[in-house]
Amino acid sequence: MNLKSSVFVGHSMSGIIGCIASIKRPELFKRLILVAASPRYINLEDYEGGFESSYVEQLLSSIGSNFHQWASSFASRVVDPNDPITVDKFKNSLQRMSPEAVLSTAKLIFHSDQRDMLEKVVIPCTIIQTINDLAVPTSVGYFMQKKIKAKSTVEIIDTNGHFPQLTAHLQLLEVLGGVLGFEL
Predict the structure, then answer these.
(1) Pick the catalytic residue: 22, 83, 152, 162?
(2) Residue of 22, 133, 139, 169 marked catalytic
(3) What domains are defined for the chain?
(4) pLDDT digit string (tens) for 132-154?
(5) Is 162 a catalytic residue?
(6) Are 117 and 19 in contact (CB under 8 A)?
């Protein structure tokens, strides 16, 4: 595709995948925009990742044992509960997926730890968080900002949940416009 100096926008784990790609091929990137991204989702004594290990194991067990109930419960916890239409749409999209694929992906995401990779990121980053994200607390954004060597900023969107692109798209577009130099 001959991409050069591109702006990468990645949500959640894909934001971290973008960071890894930028380490391997920095010439391809001008900026990384990391929306609700996290290098690790499980808490440690000195790190707040969002979830206790026991909760993650329970979550994985629920995916395997009662997938449709898990999808309903998970959707209502990670999407802004004040937006029931979007919660329902997200739940339905989860339930259309293969339970095996969701379980495999969830294991990969929740058991990953990419914190050490952050200090190798040399591309400027904009880290976008919501004020109340069960999966990625705002402390993760500031942790990432501190660890990334390149100039990075944290932008907080005044909404709940892990999916500002679904529940606060106009606020997200305002932040993106400010970063990319365009107005709505």
Answers:
(1) 162
(2) 133
(3) 6-47+115-180 (3.40.50.1820), 53-110 (no CATH)
(4) 999 999 999 999 999 999 999 99
(5) yes
(6) yes
